[in-house]
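Problem 3 from the worked examples.
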Amino acid sequence: MIFPCDNHVLRAEVSQRQTYEVLPSQSLPFDLEKLLAKLIHQELRFAATQEQLKQELTQQPRYSMSWFFREMTGPDQSKDAVDRVLLKKFLNRFSFIPNDNLILAIIRRIDLDSDAKLAFSEFSEAIRPIESNQRASRMKSAKARKFKKSAMQGESIGEIVGAEEAPIIGGTIPHDEENED
């Protein structure tokens, strides 16, 4: 669970609440289980949407985690962390006008040490896609295995990947029959 970074009394109350034993035969009432399942389902949808946006962000030609962070810390970059004020200013620059509760919700979701500020490490952890490196490396190694196997059988690169995907090698350009005069 995520505890509020801005309300230390509530944080202490929740984290120090007395625990009790739950027997294996005990369960939540059906309506509560259903609401909990619905909440978790919405969290999964949110996470999937967020992951897709992170993937798109990494595909941008000017993608730079440190540059993004500098943009958020302000023009003088004198701050080493993004706080509520800086986050709100950054979002306002792009016509997003969140209220203070939404700003705190964003900070809470990203802030790992509960100091109500986003250090570069927290920011980069939140912005970095989960699957980009894993999926890309799996795709690369699968493609490499395909190339190696096909090359051993004497196939050309064009035959392996198809003419439309064949890379330009040795300065040659794949032949295009449609544009032939």
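Problem 4, a separate protein:
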Amino acid sequence: MRFALGLFVCVYLVCAGAGPAYAQTPSTAPASAGEAASAAVATTPSASPQALELTRRYFAAMHMETTVGATVMAMMPQMMASFARNNPKMTEADQKAVVEAAAESTQVMIGKMMDKMAPVFATSFTEHELQDLVAFYEGPTGQALVAKTPAFAARMSPMLSELMPEMAADMHARLCARVACVAKPPAAPANPS
């Protein structure tokens, strides 16, 4: 569930264009996200076969492919509304194309993401913790949580949409306190309280 919500927030922020512009400064960071991911995988300790099997069972019990896809699609109306606000020339056909591309990309990429995540996940928990996770998510309460996640995520989406401008402005201010920003911060809504 946390993974699905985390993915939603990342997708939402990308679609909303929440990232501020800032001046380029030399960096020792990897040049691309791919290089960063490769570096992270290179430093991930090897997972035992038992831990990897438990991780696969956890992913299966979570119905990860279906849950993430359904969660992203349930959030799509709010993401598209925000995307359209930030891209006023976007037509209905363009919006439909974005939704279709997001659905297709989610379908294709979730399996690849799970393959890449499995060793990291498997080494982040002890085998005992993985056994407990699997037991919970394969059980009736865990399965109820999995089944209900897309519906409650969709109901939470308007609340998240309401908070996104404030979050974007806060992130912008915090980032600009660390680097030289060249763009105005996104407008945060006035607090009615």
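Solution to problem 4. The first helix runs from residue 2 to 16. The chain has a mean pLDDT of 77.
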